[in-house]
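Re: the 63-residue chain
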Amino acid sequence: MPGKASILSWANRFDDASYEAKHLVIAQLVDRIEIRKNDGYDITIHWRMTAEQFLERKTEESA
């Protein structure tokens, strides 16, 4: 299972990526975002995969 260092590495890569690259990454990770207004806002993010699945997939692709 990937460790904290792996997640931080991906965070750094994301920070350095272009807007278009960030958009592509988010599109692969997020299925949909729901926003509901109550007293404030309720935001629910529906993910396509877990962080562990994402990191394992990237490890397999680079092998």
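The chain has one domain: 4-62.
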